[in-house]
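Hey, I'm writing a tutorial for new members on how sequence and structure tokens pair up, and I'd like a real worked example in the thread rather than a made-up one. If someone can provide the structure for the chain below, I'll link this post from the tutorial.
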Amino acid sequence: MDPSMRIIPPAPSKSASLNDTANSLGLHDTLQFGPRSIAAETKSTNSLQHRLHHWEETQDNLKLTMLRDLYGLHAPARLLMERRAVSTNPHMPASQRSNIHLDILMGRDETLAPSDLFLGMEHGPSLNTHTEMERKQHL
């Protein structure tokens, strides 16, 4: 948990392009900046996609930081401990169930997502319970 009051995720780090690593002649300076990587230069980073990808993590970090500031260090530690305790499901792996306890602790109990309606059953239930148990127990 990084204690920050950031509301939105930070902008992604930018990679160096040829314009940033050019010498006085306009060529890439390999001795100062290392070998040139075309893959890094052509990879375009979309800041909106980056922010959407890290949105929940940033909001959760903000809530935990506010809990720490209001109630002390024990509040976020207790919440994280409770989340870790309820995230382990002892039920049969072949039968998909939702984890309502974790949804309540994460604050997602009032939202509706496709996984709430379909319960991960898009491909149908697995009929081989023995294989599922072996995969869960790493046998």
